[in-house]
């Protein structure tokens, strides 16, 4: 198959990938309906261009790989969607809940390539028994698909595995894939993976900065809740209004003195100051709006006793919403802080398993390639 044709087919697959949510919604009329129908569509598409023999082999290899993920997820008690096949791209499943840590996510990721390795082992025996070079193609193709998935880039299985060791390794995977894309004719799916991988690495690299912003946001919300609790005790709101006006003026002046652009990492301190000023302005605007609404509410008393005012429902609801946001921030902070933490023993196990699996798949890929060189196949 010529490179131009392969690129065209992959472009079709990328288009279908962009529409995968629509496809999934259409096909989930039964538990396995989406899997069976999308599998049939992929099988027909591959058969149209490559023949039924190749189509059955590639769909089988992809299916077993995805079932490996599903079995691993089931073992960890994580609910997933059924597998959905995408012609010329592969297949995908989605997790309906997030794993509790990176080690659990790595366990799920290992399931695919490990099952993928097992999937093409019968082809080794079939080649030895029949001498048919087609089985060499199956071996090569199965090993290559699963080895590619072990690239240490976040959207791939390898990226999810090495995150237990260090997410900094994602940058190494990006450099390797970029070198492949630049040095060889690459399909559009390679560029898509490179783009998603770059976004994943960048988000992780900027996580520390985001944690600082979240911490300041949480601080302002806690101050807001504490202040609102004291409002019913106020005899006058004049001093509060003057304080809010002063804070707004200071935040606006501070924001105006800073540059409007910044270089990530190099200007993080200045950017953080700008973020704090923006949060301060939002805090003042929210407080002023609430104060105005609260002042225009009539004060109710229990049994008409002026010493027993009924708590303002407006203030109560506002505090609950703010406390809910604080809880969400704390949850995200805890997750960011602990998700990638693993013991040394777990890291060694993950590293050894990753290297061994990559080595075995590499050996089988070379073996399959050797068979094809001994028996050249018609690639027209």
Concise summary:
The chain is mainly α.
Structural features, described:
By secondary structure, the protein is mainly alpha-helical. The protein has two domains: 3-168 and 342-374, no CATH class; 208-338, no CATH class. It is 73% helix and 2% strand. It contains 14 helices and two strands; from the N terminus they run H-H-H-H-E-E-H-H-H-H-H-H-H-H-H-H. A two-stranded antiparallel sheet has the order 1-2. A hairpin with a 3-residue loop joins strand 1 and strand 2. Helix 5 (102-130) packs antiparallel against helix 6 (134-149), helix 10 (207-230) runs antiparallel to helix 13 and helix 11 packs antiparallel against helix 12 (268-295). The longest helix is centred in the last third of the chain and has 31 residues, at 344-374. The model is unreliable at 26-30 (pLDDT under 50). Pfam families: Peptidase_M50 (PF02163). One of its GO terms (biological process) is proteolysis. Belongs to the peptidase M50B family. Keywords: Hydrolase, Membrane, Metal-binding, Metalloprotease, Protease, Transmembrane, Transmembrane helix, Zinc. Residues 54-127 form the Peptidase M50 domain.
Q: What number of domains?
A: 2
**Mean pLDDT over the residues:** 87
Oligomeric state of the chains present here: single chain
Total strand count, please?
2
Kindly report the spatial arrangement of strands forming the biggest sheet: 1-2
Strand content: under 5%
Specify the biggest β-sheet.
2 strands, antiparallel
Uncertain residue segments: 26-30
Number of helices: 14
Query: What global shape is seen?
Result: elongated
Structural class: mainly alpha
Q: Estimate percent helicity.
A: over 70%
Helix and strand element order: HHHHEEHHHHHHHHHH
Roughly how many Å apart are the termini? 5 Å
Rg to the nearest angstrom?
29 Å
């Amino acid at each position: 198959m010529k490179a131009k044709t392969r690129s065209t087919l992959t472009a079709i697959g990328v288009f279908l990938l962009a529409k995968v949510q629509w496809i999934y919604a259409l096909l989930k009329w039964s538990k396995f309906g989406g899997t069976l129908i999308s599998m049939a569509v992929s099988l027909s598409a591959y058969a149209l261009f490559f023949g039924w023999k190749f189509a059955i082999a590639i769909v089988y290899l992809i299916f077993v790989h995805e079932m490996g993920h599903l079995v691993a997820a089931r073992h960890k008690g994580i609910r997933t969607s059924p597998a959905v096949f995408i012609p010329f791209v592969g297949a995908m499943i989605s997790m309906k809940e997030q794993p509790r840590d990176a080690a659990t996510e790595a366990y799920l990721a290992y399931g695919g390539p490990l099952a993928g390795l097992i999937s093409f082992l019968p082809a080794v025996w079939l080649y030895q028994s029949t001498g048919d070079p087609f089985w060499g193609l199956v071996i090569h193709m199965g090993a290559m698909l699963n080895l590619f998935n072990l690239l240490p880039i976040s959207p791939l299985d390898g990226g999810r595995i090495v995150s237990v060791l260090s997410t900094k390794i994602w940058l190494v995977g990006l450099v390797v894939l970029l070198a492949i894309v630049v040095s060889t004719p690459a399909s559009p799916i390679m560029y898509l993976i490179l783009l998603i991988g770059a976004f994943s690495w960048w988000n992780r690299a900027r996580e520390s900065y985001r944690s600082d912003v979240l911490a300041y946001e949480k601080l302002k919300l806690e101050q807001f809740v504490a202040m609102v609790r004291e409002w019913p005790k106020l005899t006058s709101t004049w001093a509060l209004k003057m304080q809010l006006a002063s804070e707004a003026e200071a935040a606006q002046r501070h924001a105006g003195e800073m540059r409007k652009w910044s270089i990530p990492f190099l200007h993080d301190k200045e950017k953080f100051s700008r973020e704090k000023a923006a949060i301060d302005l939002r805090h003042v605007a929210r407080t002023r709006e609430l104060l105005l609404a609260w002042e225009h509410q009539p004060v109710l008393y229990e049994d008409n006793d002026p010493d027993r005012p009924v708590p303002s429902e407006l203030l109560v609801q506002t505090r609950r919403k703010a406390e809910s946001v604080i809880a969400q921030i704390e949850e995200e902070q805890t997750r960011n802080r602990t998700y990638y933490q693993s013991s040394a023993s777990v890291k060694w196990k993950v590293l050894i398993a990753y290297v061994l699996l990559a080595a075995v798949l590499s050996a089988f890929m070379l073996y399959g390639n050797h068979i094809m060189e001994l028996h050249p196949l018609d690639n027209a």
